Amino acid sequence: MADFRALILQRHRHLKWKAFDWLEAVLMILCGVCIFMFTLTVFCDVVTRTLGVPWLWLQQVTTAFFAWGVFVGMAAATRRNDHFYLTEITKRMTGAPRSAIEIANRVIVLIVSLLLIWFGWKNAILDLGSYRMPSLLPLTVYTAIVPAAGVLILLFTIEQLVNGWRHGFEGPEDRDDLPQFVVEEVVE
After folding, report:
1. Is residue 3 part of a domain?
2. Which of 20, 47, 120, 122 is the most buried (most CB within 10 A)?
3. Domain assignment present for 178
4. Tens of pLDDT, residues 150-160
């Protein structure tokens, strides 16, 4: 496989398992594909409508890339600790108060991921009986990503909770923008 290390965010490395690095890389590639294809299909839609020969199916493709991009992006952002968390507040904290907020934060994300899995699955199954016109694609094509993203968010949240309990939630990058005298006090 190609070298995917450039796609792996090294920030908060102590909260990540190397075993999931390939998954983060795949999610980042899928995010790029979804953004590119969403942009391309919107462009083609505008051009074909301007020329007076609209492709009706193009909006369905655009909708699919948008939906998949949003939920794949949520999963990638969870792994990269870029989303859902109060990082700007907690990065200034240390010790038990920080751990309490970090754990509470991730427990809330864990609950939301379980809801995404449960209700996303029910919705995807229900959507097997509903179809988009004119392609007659089941709506599940659009909604299947919801429970899949829920599973990935659950997995990455558990990964961060376990590693946070083992190694602490505070990483060296949290001290980068603090004045030197504060960093020295925290270290002592």
Report:
1. no
2. 120
3. no
4. 999 999 999 99
Who's near 71: CB < 8 A, 6+ residues apart?
145, 146, 148, 149
Is 41 part of any domain? yes
CA distances from 23 to 40, 70, 75, 95 (A): 25, 17, 10, 31
pTM of full prediction above 0.90: no
Query: Which structure tokens are listed for 47?
Result: 């051009």
| Angle ∠(128,132,134) on CA atoms, nearest 5 | 140
- Tell me how far apart the alpha carbons of residues 10 and 168 are, in angstroms, rounded to a whole number: 16
Residues with Cβ within 8 Å of residue 69, at least 6 apart in sequence: 31, 34, 35, 38
